[in-house]
């Protein structure tokens, strides 16, 4: 089954998330890998700079290669190979006019647009191989540990962040919707108290407001509901340690990305002083997780199928965590294809805690695919036994959200 084409399509639409749920725009890019059998696979990449250029390179590089060798050829793009290189690896000027870089990945470092694009190609190849073998993608990873994939809800703040009643109402609504876990963004919880957006500090005033609002959420959600908070890599070590001390009575499941994540040292300092589990890694590849686990810098690994290299790499990270007796949760603010891809890995990974869910505020990103059953039910991604990822594009929804200058992938 030879790859004949790799194409992509950029969709966009409203994004209702952030301080007060303000409306912005968000784009998602769908990837399609075609083969000489007529079968094709669907994947997704995020709309980051350089990603579509990387996809164009991979089209030139992968055309003619065996789609069943998904893990090997994506790995070639991420980590490279040594001479004499795999049969079929192009060299020189490729048909699309780009020059192939043999022996190593295009960056020689598995980081950035190459990894993000390769992630989408890997997802599409898993969909494709599952379709070819007439089996769900989770069976390519060893089969299911659980029937469905639990999701956790990422919430923005209410329109009026000072209204504790609105925080309580948001918590009650989340519980009533069938979720068992939700997450808030610390940096969006009390933005009116920020005096300097640059200095990575948390004032006592800001911490007091955050604690008041999260306490209201805890009271409304009840003692058994799991609550997490995300710091978006924004804060300095002493302030986040002080915040963690204040948050201790709330029994949080995790505090995410407390400090800048370029090295594990400061995160390890935070973890050493924290009674709240530390969750990190939404932009990491496998080897960065290895550095952070070895440094004692995290309790929960939080990879994203769109940023770690795809479904095979996501599973590899989950297994690494399992060997260290640590759980994985999957970061996710992608669209429907990214979410279903992560869910397939989640049900097939022993130590899977749950998968992030953003669609409650941006429903269109979950509706550009169709299948026989709803994507979500009772706080879970509903899994089926349909081949591959088990979804097809809803071309009408895609047409409605097609970004300017884009052609429908049909
Ligand atoms: Mg995060």
Structure write-up:
With 410 residues, this protein is an alpha/beta fold. The chain has 2 domains: 3-134, Enolase-like, N-terminal domain (Enolase-like, domain 1), CATH 3.30.390.10; 148-400, Alpha-Beta Barrel (TIM Barrel), CATH 3.20.20.120. Helices cover 33% and strands 20% of the residues. It contains 12 helices and 17 strands. The strands form 4 sheets. Strands 6, 7, 8, 9, 10, 11, 12, 13, 15 and 16 form a 10-stranded mixed beta sheet that branches. Strands 1-2-3 form a 3-stranded antiparallel beta sheet, sandwiched between helices. It has a two-stranded antiparallel ribbon with strand order 4-5. A hairpin with a 6-residue loop joins strand 1 (3-16) and strand 2. Helix 2 packs antiparallel against helix 3 and helix 5 packs parallel to helix 6 (204-221). The longest helix is centred in the first third of the chain and has 21 residues, at 113-133. The two termini are 20 Å apart. The model has no long low-confidence stretch (mean pLDDT 94). The protein binds magnesium ion (MG). Magnesium ion is lined by residues 230, 256-257, 282, 331. Magnesium ion binds next to loops.
Task: Fill in the keyword field for this structure.
410 residues, alpha/beta, Enolase-like, domain 1, TIM Barrel, 2 domains, ten-stranded mixed sheet, three-stranded antiparallel sheet, 12 helices, 20% strand, globular, binds magnesium ion
